[in-house]
Amino acid sequence: MIIDTHAHLELFEDLEYVLERAKGVGVSKIITIGTSLETSKKAIQIAENFSNSKLEIYATCGIHPKDGVEEVENLGLSEVIKSLEKITKSSKKVVGIGECGLDYRTVKSEKGQVTSEDEKGAQKKIFREQIRLATQLDLPLVVHCRNGWNEIFDLLTTNHEPSTNLTGVFHSFTGGVEEVRTAVDLGFFVSFSGIVTFTNAKNIQKAAKKVSIDRILLETDSPFLAPKPLRGSQNEPKNVTIIGQFLAEHLNLPVGKIEKLTMSNASSLFRLG
């Protein structure tokens, strides 16, 4: 049995078939991720409506540094955080705060402009408030990081009471050895997506070898980031088994051990039943 700790199930038009295929390969738990107030509500609805004895679905609620910006601009950060807290408290299916964090573009491309200093400042404010909310509600954080490692580590270090046990996961980990060590030193887990299987992901693969197995999680980030050899196609939760198989071979461990330990790790972090 295996868990996909990070999927965006609201994006699948054929969700029932996606879930059936996941069950067919042994996926028994999925966490579907909120990235805005709207998608957080959808995540809860999916978790409540599609869970069954063979496949348990949980949800997180959060404001992504890109996806949630429009809501913050329209409603104001204070109102968005109040609403996020209310949504989070509305269901026992909610097991975390996020996806939240920092997303900096350092090169201009067809996907967008280089992130300005004003945008960086706004992202930090949104992330800071969710760190505080996670601490207040005693829930783990699901952290998104693109080109903002030092800032994220600094915010995690300075924006909660030292007496609290703030923890969480760096999802779809894309850092190297130094970043993975810092993340674990902060008490966080690291989750590997299909990216770790890519031929050009040598730094991530090196980092995976430096993490204690009791700090590793698996995820698909579906429908994005399909693992090799499916790269370029729509990803889905069943493909978490491919990622587990890759890591097992990469770490020279039996695949069954990887699946069992990552399930145990996820159950501990997110307090799953």
Q: Into how many domains do the coordinates divide?
A: 1
**CATH fold name:** TIM Barrel
At the first level of CATH, the class is Alpha Beta
CA(first)-CA(last) distance: 14 Å
Spatial arrangement of strands, main beta sheet: 1-2-3-4-5-6-7-8
Brief overview:
By secondary structure, the protein is an alpha/beta fold. The chain has helices at residues 15-24, 37-50, 69-75, 77-89, 117-137, 149-158, 177-185, 202-208, 240-250, 255-270; strands spanning 2-7, 27-32, 56-61, 94-103, 141-146, 168-170, 189-192, 216-218.
Report what the structure shows.
The protein is of the alpha/beta class. The protein has a single domain (2-270), classed as Metal-dependent hydrolases (TIM Barrel), CATH 3.20.20. It has helices spanning 15-24, 37-50, 69-75, 77-89, 117-137, 149-158, 177-185, 202-208, 240-250, 255-270; strands spanning 2-7, 27-32, 56-61, 94-103, 141-146, 168-170, 189-192, 216-218. α7 runs parallel beside α8 (202-208).
List descriptors.
alpha/beta; TIM Barrel; globular; 273 residues
Write the layout of secondary structure elements.
Blueprint: E1 2-7, H1 15-24, E2 27-32, H2 37-50, E3 56-61, H3 69-75, H4 77-89, E4 94-103, H5 117-137, E5 141-146, H6 149-158, E6 168-170, H7 177-185, E7 189-192, H8 202-208, E8 216-218, H9 240-250, H10 255-270
Parallel strand pairs: 1-2, 2-3, 3-4, 4-5, 5-6, 6-7, 7-8
